TrEMBL record:
The keyword Oxidoreductase is assigned to this record: yes
Pfam families for the chain: Pyr_redox_2
Top-level taxon: Bacteria
Protein name as it appears in the record: NAD(P)/FAD-dependent oxidoreductase
Keyword Transmembrane helix appears in the UniProt entry: no
Cleavable signal peptide: none
Keywords, in A-Z order: FAD, Flavoprotein, Oxidoreductase
């Protein structure tokens, strides 16, 4: 076992987990290579679903994957820990000490040797140094943050319902900073929660008592997507009684107040930061790797690090160039999925002494889901080259299929079918919102 080529993948997000699953099934099962996944958490939840966990419309416990159990089924090893350094000379990944909830050391700092290293640690929110953001904003970078948000939301509803019952002021202003896909979809999920929770005993708090405001510095929401989608999303948010403010950035965030650049103050009891992303800061301090201003590792079109042929990076944490384009691959879930597929082929070729496969990004379109209300989006025609705009039930079907495709990559078609059936049964038996 020790003589096998050791491929270490750091980061068990969508791309990283799909990659180790395929490598394990192809190489690990046949003892052609040793595959190891390193992640700071014990379970995986598809990151595009975190806003649904936060609002309570998705039960994370029913949708998370345990890394240890998954590793056993798919012939790879799992190491719990957070990457903190890199020794390129010794070809070792440095893993920070693992601490328990009380801060006591459970496992000391350790090192994991590699022959090939793949870094897929994703991204975190970028607050652009906005004063007060770290102190007064909630973030949705991880499952723990989403669960904390959900608990705070339930407590806020409970508190406001009691204030309404007592005849006191009970308005609950919620502000979302950033109107990309996460911010827009979260707004719709929160509006759903404001309408559903009163059904479960909080009947003194009305949906109109919960004001939701989405702030975007650009001149329109969803600025990275076509204007037609932005217009459709703006209309849907207005229909759901969500206020949209565009064209002005936030300059300061205080306790209970969001301050705009022109000095306008907006009351906000819950403020969520969903504007911009960056790669984790520790990447810029790794030995001998080139990174950009957003901490992303610079890689070649083959996803190989520009300074080390034994290191690869992909997903949100990598800056990958594209032919005939000045812009790198966009940080999107479909990018990571496509890169995992190409990198799987490259790593298999690497063991056989064959050339790497260059990555070419194919934009398949974008879908924005407004909870149970509607879905809008565009699909790119691979053959015709045309863009098809869709909405309603058809768009919703395509949106749901994205998650099922991720599940197929991790579990196969048969197990995904069983999971789908269990999801249907669970929805029929349990409340539409998670109430605890």
């Amino acid at each position: 076992m020790e003589n096998l080529h050791h491929i270490v993948v750091v980061g068990g997000g969508a791309g990283g987990l799909e990659l180790v699953t395929r490598l394990g099934n192809k190489l690990g099962k046949k003892h052609k290579a040793r595959i190891t996944l390193v992640d700071a958490g014990l379970t995986h939840v598809w990151k595009p679903l975190l806003h649904e966990v936060a609002s309570g419309s998705l039960d994370a416990s029913a949708n998370e994957i345990n890394y240890r159990a998954h590793a056993r089924k798919h012939h790879y090893e799992f190491q719990l820990g957070r990457m903190s350094g890199l020794d390129r000379g010794a070809r070792e990944v440095v893993i920070a000490p693992f601490l328990d909830e009380d801060g006591d050391e459970v496992v000391p700092e350790r090192r994991i040797g590699y022959d090939t290293l793949v870094i897929a640690v994703g991204s975190t929110a970028n607050d652009f140094g906005t004063p007060g953001a770290q102190e007064h904003c909630l973030f949705l970078d991880s499952l723990n943050q989403a669960r904390r948000f959900h608990n705070l939301l339930l407590n806020a509803f409970l508190r406001k319902n009691h204030e309404a019952q007592s005849g006191n002021g009970h308005e609950l202003p919620i502000t979302i900073i950033g109107a990309g896909a996460t911010g827009v979809e979260l707004a719709a999920e929160l509006r759903l929660a404001s309408r559903e929770l009163p059904i479960y005993g909080m009947n003194h708090l009305r949906p109109d008592d919960v004001s939701i405001t989405v702030i975007e510095a650009a001149d329109r929401i969803l600025p990275a997507l076509p204007p037609r989608l932005s217009d459709a999303a703006t209309r849907e948010l207005a229909h759901q009684n969500v206020k949209v403010m565009t064209g002005q950035p936030v300059s300061d965030i205080r306790d209970g107040v969001v301050v705009m650049k022109d000095g306008t103050e907006i009351d906000s009891e819950m403020t969520i930061w969903a504007a911009g992303i960056k790669a984790p800061a520790f990447l810029s301090k790794l030995e001998g790797l080139d990174t950009n201003r957003g901490n992303q590792i610079k890689v070649k079109q083959t996803l190989e690090a520009t300074t080390d042929p034994d290191i690869y990076a992909f997903g949100d944490c990598a800056e990958c160039p594209q032919p005939d384009s000045e812009r790198p691959v966009p940080p999107r879930a479909q990018s990571a999925h496509q890169q995992a597929d190409v990198l799987f082929k490259t790593l298999c070729n690497r063991l056989e002494g064959r050339e790497a496969v260059p990555f070419v990004y194919n934009d398949h379109g974008s879908l924005i889901n407004f909870s149970r209300y509607t879905t809008v989006g565009n699909l790119m025609g691979n053959l015709s080259g045309r863009t098809m705009y869709i909405e309603g039930k058809v768009a919703r079907l395509f949106y749901l299929s994205l998650y099922r495709m991720h599940q197929v990559a991790l579990h196969g078609v048969l197990r995904t079918g069983v999971i789908w059936l269990m999801d249907r049964i669970s929805r029929a038996m349990h409340p539409r919102l998670k109430l605890h």
